[in-house]
Amino acid sequence: MSLFPIRPRVRTAALTVVGLAAAAVVASGPASAEPSASPDTSSPPAAGRPTVVLVHGAWADASSFAPVTERLQRDGYTVLAAPNPVRGLVGDAATVAAFVNQATTGPVVLVGHSYGGAVITNAATQAPRVQALAYIDAFAPAEGESTAQLSAAKPGSRLAGDPATVFDVVQDPSAPAGDPDLYVKRPLFAQAFAGRLPRQTARQLAAAQTPAAAGALGEPSGVPAWKTIRSWFLVGTADQIIPPAEQFAEAARAHGVVVTAATGHLAMLEVPAAVAALIERAASAR
């Protein structure tokens, strides 16, 4: 049985309610009994600037963008993290589009990491105020392509091997039979996703990963928003999850602006300043 079942492309208005898991990295050392408050040096949101909406990838949550969010807020941007259930590409995109349409006003820059790139590719076609797309080590599929397919399109992805050696499989009794939750095996996660981060941080991220429904990774994309919306791409040249060659190929067909960084797959944690700079570049383009 394939671990990546393809679901029928059915639009639904039902919203999946999922638990929120925080993957916080706690600094070592004793906590102060009365911590002193740090002054708020961030700039207030500037009128006329687009809102930045962040969409995390699979096996992660919104905290993966925390260092980027801090920089953007300091520079005066309104930043929101959209929910990404990772239950199915059509449903995930509808969830993000609903968030953009109802929780924001004015123009929006939609940012996606990894699987989140596939989500924004589909969500932005349903959210008319999105003026720019930013892909951070992310998939930008064409119509009919899935993230599982694109992972293996070019050599070099550590997820493209035998699924039995890549994933731990858990069948959630509340999910459809045959569409299990996937977790990247913890040692592989620490090496392939987070191998350029401190070892303890990598182990904590591996332990805190949230599941991805197998069907979400195998579900084909719809008409891509990058055909009509300007796109920016940050390509990590040491990415072991989405090979750089694949990211370059997807960026080229989208006629996107490409910036490279010497980083692995978790660019938001490794080079947050470069990620924030790319997003601000997309936000300021006219």
How many strands in all? 9
Evaluate the radius of gyration.
18 Å
Low-confidence stretches: 8-41
* Series of secondary-structure elements, N-terminal to C-terminal: EHEHEHEHHEEHHEHEHEHH
Structural class: alpha/beta
Strand order of the largest sheet: 2-1-3-4-8-9
Q: For the residues shown, what is the average pLDDT? A: 88
Q: Give the proportion of residues in helices.
A: 25-40%
Give the count of helical stretches. Answer: 11
- Main sheet record: 6 strands, parallel
Instruction: Tell the overall outline.
Output: globular
Alpha carbon gap, first and last residue: 48 Å
Strand coverage percent: 15-25%
Model description:
The chain is an alpha/beta fold. 32% of the residues lie in helices and 16% in strands. It starts with 50 loop residues before the first strand and ends with a helix. Helix 6 (186-193) crosses helix 7 (199-208). The chain has helices spanning 66-74, 89-103, 115-123, 147-151, 163-166, 186-193, 199-208, 214-218, 244-253, 267-270, 272-284; strands at 51-55, 79-81, 108-114, 130-138, 167-170, 181-184, 212-213, 231-236, 257-261. The longest helix is centred in the middle third of the chain and has 15 residues, at 89-103. The protein is built from 11 helices and 9 strands. The strands form 2 sheets. Strands 2-1-3-4-8-9 form a 6-stranded parallel sheet, sandwiched between helices. It has a 3-stranded antiparallel sheet with strand order 5-6-7. The model is unreliable at 8-41 (pLDDT under 50).
